[in-house]
Amino acid sequence: MRAPKATVENARRLRRALSPPEARLWSRLKTRSEGAPVFRRQHPIGPYVLDFYCAKARLAVEVDGIGHDMGDGPQRDLRRDAWLRDQGIAVIRIPAKDVMRAIDEVVVSIVSLANDKIAT
């Protein structure tokens, strides 16, 4: 699925400005070991930019900072997740604090979920 030009440009900008939790997670997900799922960072899809995306597993990984809990953030996330589900993409949301406190456990759970989705 192609994304609008503005979404692609936004994704490029976001790749250069990862938050500390996103940068920490990306440093672990970008490793290309044999048999490991491949992730993209700040991947444009439709009107959205996904924090991380594994195309083979059709899995989006969103790192949620405090902004996702404020104002209309929860409603925006619900709309976005519903749209992605309609496209056949599963979404896993990881609190930013978990990425900072327990990166090993977070990576294991993401990779395990991606591998499970690839296998089915």
What would you note in describing this structure?
- With 120 residues, the chain is an alpha+beta fold.
- It has a single domain (5-119), classed as Endonuclease, Chain A.
- It is 48% helix and 21% strand.
- Strand 1 and strand 2 form a beta hairpin.
- The model has no long low-confidence stretch (mean pLDDT 89).
Number of helices: 5
The major pleated sheet works out as: 4 strands, mixed
State the distance separating the first and last CA atoms.
Answer: 22 Å
The count of strands amounts to 4
What would you call the structural class? Answer: alpha+beta
Written as H for each helix and E for each strand, in order along the chain, the element string is: HHEEEHEHH
- Shape from CA axes? globular
> What is the averaged pLDDT score?
89
Number of domains: 1
CATH superfamily: VSR Endonuclease
Radius of gyration: 14 Å
CATH class: Alpha Beta
Strand arrangement in the largest pleated sheet? 1-2-3-4
* CATH topology-level name: Endonuclease, Chain A
CATH architecture: 3-Layer(aba) Sandwich
**Low-confidence sequence ranges:** none
Share in helix: 40-55%
Strand content: 15-25%
